[in-house]
Amino acid sequence: MKKHKVTICTGTLCHVMGGSELPALSQFIPPQYLNQVEIKGSPCINHCKNQDMKPPFAEIDGDIFCEATIDKLVKELIKRIENDS
Amino acid sequence: MTANNNNATIIRRDLLVRLCTALLQDKAEETDRIPLNIKPKKRGSVRCCVHKDRAVLKYKLMSILGYKESEETDELLPISHYVKHARGIQDFIIDVISEVCSNCPSAKYKVSNFCMACEARPCQVNCPKNAISFKSGKAEIDDDLCVNCGKCAKECPYHAIQYQARPCEESCAVGAIYQDEQGFEHIDKSKCILCGNCMQACPFGAITPSSTLPQIISEIKSGNQIIAMVAPSIAGQFRQDLHQIYGSIISLGFTDLYPVAIGADLTAAHETIELQEHIESKVTSPLTSSCCPAWVKFVKTQTSLDDDIISNTPSPLAYTAKIVKQENPKAKTVFIAPCIAKKAEAQALSDCDYCISFEELGAWFVASGIEISDQMEYKPKVTASLLGQNFAMAGGVSLAIKESVENDCRIENIHGLNKANIRLIKQKIKSHSCDFMEVMSCEEGCLGGNLSLVSSRESIRIYNAKAETH
Fold first, then answer.
1. Does B372 contact chain A (CB < 8 Å)?
2. DSSP class of residue B463?
3. What does the pLDDT read at residue B89?
């Protein structure tokens, strides 16, 4: 089964600028989809150097998401999983 | 509105980060660009136009630097002028910035277009003050008669009656924030207990606390001995190990670090003795904790409560600051605190020179490019017991006392100084239904401090996860 890879920035900047709850993402993903998602935290994923985008940052399958919220990431993941089938 | 998850909070942090960056690089002039960088033309505006948004940011920065907007004698003076003459905390730690306040209309119930002027008219029938009429064809509320009970809104089957709120006033449990004739909010300092509720509630971020970061950074740059005293609730602010957080604080340029939990151990010991004496003296009111400065100020501002109910035991900060100054008489001390009330307490203590909040600490880390997980661990010379560390939690003081008090005693703990809890506290004091009462102004105690980087829920989760591994 195809797994969608989520990388959450756990760096200090993203933590301070509103991303402190993102590491809890897995608790908000519908249980039936959990086995199709792989979540990992990573210190600074370097998007904060780009002044045009606002933190906090996350990546799904390599695509960047700025001003990330749990809601935004969950919606995107469901969309991608439902597209697979 | 979640206190930690809204743009007003994020903008306050963004301002702190940018200000701190300029201070660290000795580039005060750069601060003049902060409003332009945060609000570039292409991104649109929140208020009437981008220029107003930028002016608002200037006044927020002035407030951080210790200047009221009313002190702005020359509007052409740039932000960098105030940065070069930063004043730190003045007599006001929080105030409403009129330029930022949006003159919210007064709180009242209003009938919307959804009103169907139905036959049942339960709004009119159930109104205890006969404030509702149907002169214009749909329901109308007579503001002079209405007492804001909300029955009409609850009764309306179309949800046509809405409550128009004024968030700051609603959040204030002591009626300290009021509107003047022009519609701007002001804080009555004789009533304000510095609970910080209005700051968290204002959707426009009109209440921005002052900061002593410029002074602290300049002390460090001059090579002065400067010591951090860190509140135990820091453990709930960052996921990393406590010693790594300490290491990160040392990396900012502090010469040494003391956990305030060592003072908490002394507070607990002294509080226990005081409580035993209190019980033996057969006083007819409970003894209440003295750790939370907002609670202490609350009791002092309430005529219905006797000041004697607050214990005379010094707070963990007072003990810690005394020890640090005794051991290092030449050093400047900086308290790293969870909330506004603690900032005020620190300012009043002669042993404590400066105080910054967790939020300011986070901004400082970001501005310094410090990645906590990359930092070396730092183990302080003196360590506290687990009970002292637990002062971070709501119920922590009670827990420490329960462990050591000899007499049988009834202990209560209440956190969150809202209107309902205030009624409850007064009732418990009056009926003497407990011997000791721990009161914390913030929900979840210091872990939920109003200048935290994370929500109280998340802070507890982080704190408990660490407690399990130890």
1. yes
2. H
3. 86
**Residue B348 belongs to some domain of the structure:** yes
ipTM of the complex: 0.93
Say if B10 is an interface residue toward chain A (CB within 8 Å).
yes
- Residue B169, domain member (yes or no): no
- B42 & B138 share domain: no
B13 and A11 in contact by Cβ < 8 A? Answer: no
Could you give the CA distance from residue B343 to residue B199 in angstroms, rounded to a whole number?
A: 14
* Pair of tokens at residue B232: 């135990």
pLDDT of residue A39: 96
Residue B171 domain-assigned (yes or no): no
The shortest CB-CB distance from A20 to any of B17, B373, B453 is to B453
Residue B199 in contact with residue B209, Cβ under 8 Å? yes
| Domain extent for B147 | 108-164
User: For residue range B152-192, what is the model confidence (pLDDT) as tens digits?
Assistant: 999 999 999 999 989 999 999 999 999 998 889 999 999 99
Where do the domains of chain A lie, and which CATH numbers do they carry? 4-84 (3.40.30.10)
Residue B2, domain member (yes or no): no
Nearest-by-CA chain A residue for B5: A18
- Closest-CA residue in chain A for B237? A20
Cα B53 to Cα B51: distance, rounded to the nearest angstrom: 5
As beta bridge partners, residue B257 has B228
Chain A nearest-CA distance from B431, in A, is: 42
Model confidence at A85, pLDDT cuts 50, 70, 90, reads confident
> Which residues in chain B touch residue A21, judged by CB atoms under 8 angstroms apart?
5, 454-455, 458
Per-position DSSP letters for B271-310, written without gaps between them = HHHHHHHHHHTT-SS-EE--S-HHHHHHHHH-TTS-GGGB
Question: Distance between CA atoms of B290 and B311, rounded to whole angstroms?
Answer: 6
- For residue B113, the tally of other CB atoms under 10 A from its CB is 7
**Do both B219 and B192 map to the same domain?**
no
Binned average pLDDT, 10 residues per bin, chain B of 470 residues: 86 97 97 96 90 97 94 95 93 88 91 95 96 93 94 96 93 94 92 95 95 97 97 97 97 98 97 93 91 97 93 97 97 97 96 97 97 97 94 94 84 94 95 94 96 94 87
Q: Partners of B415 in the beta sheet?
A: B440
Residue B196 and residue B336 in one domain:
no
Contact A18 B5 (CB under 8 A): yes
**Are B183 and B266 in the same domain?**
no
Domain match, B340 and B367 both: yes
As for how many domains chain B has, the answer is: 3
Q: Do B4 and A20 touch (CB under 8 A)?
A: yes
Confidence at residue B470, expressed as pLDDT on a 0 to 100 scale: 64
pLDDT at A41 over 90: yes
Burial (CB count within 10 angstroms: exposed 0-12, middle 13-18, buried 19+), residue B161: buried
Of the residues B241, B371, B462, B464, the best mutation for testing chain A's interface (the one with the most A CB atoms within 10 Å of its CB) is B371
CB contact under 8 A, B458 and A21: yes
Which chain B residue's Cα is nearest to A68?
B5
